[in-house]
Prior knowledge:
The chain is α+β, with helices and mostly antiparallel strands. The chain has 3 domains: 6-74 and 112-251 and 312-382, Vanillyl-alcohol Oxidase, Chain A, domain 3 (3-Layer(aba) Sandwich); 415-480 and 585-743, 3-Layer(aba) Sandwich (Rossmann fold); 483-583. Helix content is 43%, strand content 18%. The protein is built from 25 helices and 24 strands. The strands form 2 sheets. Strands 1, 2, 3, 4, 5, 6, 7, 8, 9, 10, 11, 12 and 13 form a 13-stranded antiparallel β-sheet that branches. The radius of gyration is 34 Å and the shape is elongated.
Amino acid sequence: MPKSVQETIPVQRLWKDGIFQSGKSCTKTFRFEDINYQIAGNDAQSTMFLNYSKVLNSLDADNFAQITIRNHKRNMIEFNHDVLFPMRNDNLDCYRKEYNQILSDHANEGNGIVQEKYLTITTSSDKDIQTVRNQFSRIETTLNTKMETLGSGMTALDARDRLRILHSFFRKGEETIFSFDLSESMRLGRDFRDYICPDAMEIQKDCLKIGSRYCRTLFFKSFSTYIDDAMIKEICDMDRDMMLSITINPLSMEAANRLADRQTDNVETNIANWQRRQNKANNFSAIIPYHYEQQRKECREFQEDLRNRDQRVFFTTITLVHLADTLDELDADTRKLQAIAGNKGCQLAPLVYQQVDGLNTTLPYGICRVSVDYTMTTEALSAFSPFNTRDLNHPHGVYFGQNLVSGNMILINRLMLQNSNCFILGVSGSGKSMTGKNEILSIVLNTDADVILIDPDREYGKLTQKLNGELICLSEVSENHINAMDFRQAHDESIENAIKRKQSFVLSLCEEIIGGNIDSKARSLIDRCSGNIYRRYIKEQKEMPTLRSLYEELKSQPEELGKELALEIELYATGSLNTFAQTTNVDTENRLLCYDIHEMDEDLMTVGMLVVLDSIMNRISQNREDGKKTFIFIDEIYLLFRHEYTFKFLSQLWKRVRKYGGSCTGLTQNVEDVLQTRESRALIANSEMLVMLNQSGTDRPILADMLKIPESQLPYITGVRPGHGLLKVGSALIPFGNEFPKDTELYQIITTNQDEIQRHKQKNEKSSKQ
């Protein structure tokens, strides 16, 4: 019996990289991601099943493995810190409070259970630590390769991560005060177990009392002949704190074949003895009993599996620890768990006088102290699949809705992805702009990042104004102006380089105005004039040059070509399309910019977008130097594909924006518009995240073919309600639903439903009259 609670923790030594020593063994734990196994179609499930079998077969015979599924209730202190928006004492706090209430309500809709999955590998500690590290590194590489074929990934846990798991189990409610520094612990001479052990542990016949809570370890006493691959899922779906572990001890092929031969010999010996007894009784025509024939058949199948079907043999133990606040609640939960297993033809039973050993077998220590081994082939063991459905819960992530399978919140931090670009796809009325505005709200209210919008349909003006942004309406008759010739020097850029960069832009602008390529003489003349203008501005520091300045400079050149070029750009410099030839009169430094191009004439569109995109690129470059993130949202992005320059700009932006600390989001109704050319398809290929809402009948097969969406998941983007669909984040496909509460002020800001807007307006007018 342990003499202290520290002694109940079977770890004698640890290293900073997460290697634990338990007795004569060293262990290392990896966290692995879930996959959408339960909602996959039959063919997809079969493929996943076979790939999981390959993962199991890759385990070395001289190593021991443990798969642990951990259910724990969401810590509300961590939730408030990581998810809710802190107040900033500005005029937007009213929106933060309302959004926080929405997030809290969504968090309470589910069962509040967070599920994590771990794989612990155990190897002998007889070797030196560097040899052990090399061995774990080799195992990690092999397993990572196999897990990637499943669509999952593994992350090695360091010592602090592993101790945090144990601390949160033993000291429920104190997760946020966990503090462990290995160097400090060594300096003070403290046992690392002091940081994680419970205050007290009371050992009873069939349960333990850890602190103020009760826990009980159950084990699988028997299994049915047919194992349902949904059994582990149904057990772990209980909204209780629990851990379930599958300990796996692989046999070498040589040992497995010896075991199969020995079992076959035993069966044949029993049959021979039975026949001898029958012959002795003069019963020479007796038929071999059915149970002997079945044993003979099973032994032959077992040998066939090992020799011809790539099956291996594992000694397996499955244990489960569940916790409750009272003993009565613990007993009731035990009965529920036994009923779930009983419905699958299996038997769960509590360990008697072995609760401490059962607890240590279940927690991710990588040891097995319960002698309840079952012999299983790869195929049988694969049926105890730990996979259910993929959840995303990134720290400080944006809320994108509820997982329609697990019911959990989907929180995505795009900056944690391989690239943070995104496309939002869906037919009209499917909730595209609501999805985009929801993310814009989160970014503006909860971060210091800048947001830049291109709005061709005048849908984001109200949102921009309510969030203290700058609404810039651009057209040939608008009062808002952006100077195409605005000069800005980056912090680390020389004056000459800044001038050359701006000269290059002016040349591109003139090419668009004149239409088509211009010859070398004209290019040289434009380059000379723009250089003269900017050098004069830097020297005199007078008014910022404009297109009118370029027009006058071209006219003053001795060459006749200068006057011809001045005439070419006159319409945009001094004529009716001179919107971008005037001094900038809007706040382009605002952290939320909305470029409204709804009324921009087609003749002005090309030049206008050239100026807007140059302004956006300058802002991104400036933010990179200032260490700020930039999020760009382009609604109805297909409209920009019509113009060669803007299309090329978007292609380059999508590829390079990650290096500038930026993120691009394109919204469009029809996927066909985005996939017409190889270059446009590259935009989606360079987008790690796709939000697929309700899709048209022509777009669904295109998406399914391009993204390899299983047939079983297409209903999630077929005829669904607004705000519902599929999220593709990396390799994960997650069905989601996000219905923004209509009785909130935020909804009235972001909705585009004209009937609802009108009803809300009439309601406010009626209230004001009363």
